[in-house]
Every structure is written in C-alpha cells, then in structure tokens.
Amino acid sequence: MTASPELRTGGEWIVEALRAEGVRHVFGLPGVHNLAIYDALLKQHEITHVLARHEQGAAFMADGYARASGRPGVVAVTTGPGATNTLTPMVESWAGSQPVLTLMSDIPSALIGKDLGALHEVPNQIDCFRPVSRWAETIHEGRLFPAAVQRAFHLFRTQRPGPVALSLPTDLLVGKTVGQLTALTGGRPACDPKKIDEAAEVLRRARRPLIVAGGGAVAAEAGAALATVARRLGAPVLTSVMGRGILPETDPLWLGIVPNWRASKATLESADVILAVGYRFAHRSTKGLLLNFSLKPEQTLVHLDLDPGVIGRMHPTAVGIVGDARLGLEALAQALGPGAPAAGWDRAWLASQRDARWPRYTETADRFIKLLRQALPEDGIVVNDQTGINYWMEWHFPVLRPRTFLYPIGSATLGYGVPAAIGAKVACPDRAVVAVIGDGGFMFSVNELATAVKYGLGIVFLVMNDERYGAIKYLQDAIFGKYGEVDLANPDFPAMARAFGAAGERVADLDALPHALERALKHAGPTVIELPVGVEPPWEL
User: Fold this and answer.
1) Kind of pairing, strands 176-179 and 6-9?
2) The domain 363-532 is classified under which CATH number: 1.10.630.10, 3.40.50.150, 3.40.50.970, 3.10.450.10?
3) Taking the complete model, does pTM exceed 0.85, yes or no?
4) For residue 209, what are the β-bridge partners?
5) What average pLDDT does this structure show over 105-114?
C-alpha cells in the first residue's frame, strides 16, 4: 500500500518512516546538524526518545534493545565525531548480527567529499561505516529519506540481520520535500524442499547426530522446531553464546556451548553428522584460545543458514540449506517423519561431558553463578560486560529462555554492560535486568548511569571489583611472567552511585549478596552493588 505524496522536512520524513515501521524507541543525542530529526520527534508522541550521555552509549543501548526484544534498535546521532562514536557498538552489532539502524547527520550535501573543513566534517563520512554495516549509504535526495529507512527495515526482516548506517546531509534534513511511504513486503525465505529431503536422508542414517545452534536460530524464533528435531534424532545440542536459551539449559539434550571445549570438543569430534542451524562457526569460538575444531573426512555437515555466504566458509558442507531457521527445521521435522532416535550416543558419557568443570573453576565462581541464578526469575535478563566472572558465566550460567543472556561475544569489548542493560530494560520494562560488570568495564561507560537515573530504570549494576584489569593481568603473568599497567585507582562506587541519584551498596562477600540483590531488584530505580572479589578467567595457556 502506497500513501499519497506529502510535503515534509527530511527530519519529519525520517520520523514518519520510523513510526510506520513500528518503532517505539530511539536512542541518541541531538547536535547542531540533526536538530530537524529532533524537531520531528518532539512533534509526535508514538516514539519515545532516550537521551544518552555519549553516542557510544546510545548505540550500545540500541544493541541491547535489539538483543532483548528481537525488534530493531534505532540510534540518532550528529555529524562527524557524534557519528564515529558509534563505530565500536556497530562492530559489536555486526559481529552479533543485530538489527540496529544508525541515523547520522552529515555536512551540507554540496560540501561532502570536498575536504573544506566544514563543521564536524569527516570526508566521505559514510566510508567509515561500510566495513561494519550490512548496508551503509549517504542519501543524497530528501525525497528518498523515507524509502531508505523502510529499505533498512526490509533488510532486517528478510536477510541476516546486522547494522545499517544512513548518512543524512543536514540541508536535506531541514529542507522540505515531497516524499511518500511505500510498504515493502516479504519475509525470510523458505528452504529448498529438495535440500530438506537430502538433509533428512543424511540425518536418518546418522548414528551419532549432533545439533549446533547459533544466534540465527534465536532470531528466527526456532526453539520449538529445534526441540522437535533434536528429540526425533536423539541429538545432543550445543549452542553458540548467541544461541543460548534456544533450548532451556535444564533440558537433558542441551550439552553446553561450543567455546567450552571440555563440554564440546569430544562431542564435536565424535559426531558422525552435524546439523548446524543459524551458526557460522565463528573463529573466536571454534579456532580460538581453547577449541580448535576441524571437520574430519568421515564427518558430514548439514548447514542451515539464512546467509548463503556462511555455508561452507569454515568447513566443507555436504548439504547446504539457505533459508529461515524455523521454517527449515519445521520442514526437516516433517521430512524426517516418525522414527526411533539414534542409538549411537552413550548418554551417560554425554552427561559427563555436560557436567565437566575445569580445574580452574573455583568455588567462588560457582557459588556466585548459583546465587545470581537463584535471585532471578526465568525471564530475567543478564547483561555481561567483560571480566573474569563473565567468562565463566558465558559457559556455566544456566540460561532458561532466549534473549535473556546478553554478551558482547563478537567484539569482546569493555563498556558494553551498562548501556546494553539500559537498552534491554527500555525494551522489557517489566522484567528484571542485572548487568554484571568488572570495575574496569564499569568505568568505561559509568556516565550512562545518569541515563538510567533520568528514566527511573530499575536495573541492578553488579560491579565485581578486583582493583585491576584482572583478565589482562592473568594473560601478562601467563605469557610474560610479569605484569604491569593493569592496577586501577577506583572511586568509591556506592558513593558515586548515590552522587548520580542511584542507590549504592557495598557487600563484603557472597554471603551478603542474596539480600542485596533482593533489595536492588525491588528498588524502583537503578542500584549499584559493589562486590570486592577477583575471579581469574578460564583460559589455560
């Protein structure tokens, strides 16, 4: 359905297109060049703007919003440094295949690319964003603004998600133009029935089938279909970190996550047929510090993914199926038909793999994880930053539902936890949200605590304080036999929280943590809990 052409400013067209696509929240900061967008936002009431304290925080909020809700996150920033401040979050959204739309203003259209020293100028600004965007473009005509926004959302709906960057010249944002909204139809593609039949035939013959599920399965809401196929095959299920919760991790078929090689390595090597669903065998997880997996000649890989470029990239594929994970798994379940599950697995051995813990896994780490899980409801959202305990949580924190375990797995960046938790809480205001952050990572983005206070967001920021960049100290010691430039001079975190207007508390040890969490989760606004503790990462070098 196409609306009649109307005369609006470019900023009004942007906001109207967002509204038409169902957007209800925009994160960002106003600046001199993008004020036409903010003028349009102020004229309407359907879209709520969340004012961040830094563009990096705003874009991480949009990422957290997208991960927790499955809906695209939108961030609006100004030209030059405002735009480039979003690059690190876009790296994470790219790596995590998250649908985030970054709307950045640009210098006047006649000056773009001329390097004349215009205010906030980055020559050919959009070129900075192409390496980390599914689509990045400067829109050179105001009448095309609504179509560009709607094309971005069409890409989110129909292809592998990822960030989109649109650069909007300031003169076109202010100027009036005739434009129109055009609804773009279409969804994720179905799978080739012949490929489904080929895969079903391979899987029916499997004695030790294994399923590896990634974030693509979560994005497709394929949990029920995946469980059906897993039970029909009797296949244990490994997930990526992005795929956690696609099967409740209390389910006997769930085995562990791929990077935890003590749970995954022997099983990956023992499987005769591997069904990968929405999973790209990322280098960090399968060729990283711990797990170095290669497919054996006698093993068969069936790979189902929305992105054809993923299939066969890391491992030779016997059957490659391009399409939506849920539709593909539903078709596969039908093609498999009734039958007995595979009998080749030793179920007791699989259980021993699942329950394996590393010698470096301490009682402190285990108790902390258990206390946090007990404090949260099933749908509570845990947002991780990067610190010693988070590496253990990546493997051992029980995830019971999809989109409840947010982790910057792609970029492994510090500073993700605080703003991503804000985005998650904005997306899911009625659910518990706890961010687990080290003292180093907390200081990367502590300014956004002011955003949580401004909007009265009941988030718990749990700061694990060891007075250093602990994981880096561990690596320095292990590799070089000494360490340096990792000890930190920290503020009084509870006092700082109170200065922001948040609640702040320091607990002496794990014994005091449950009551502190109970109080914080009931508190209407944000709470900072400081826990003095050091936890080394799990790496064995």
Assistant:
1) antiparallel
2) 3.40.50.970
3) yes
4) 273
5) 92
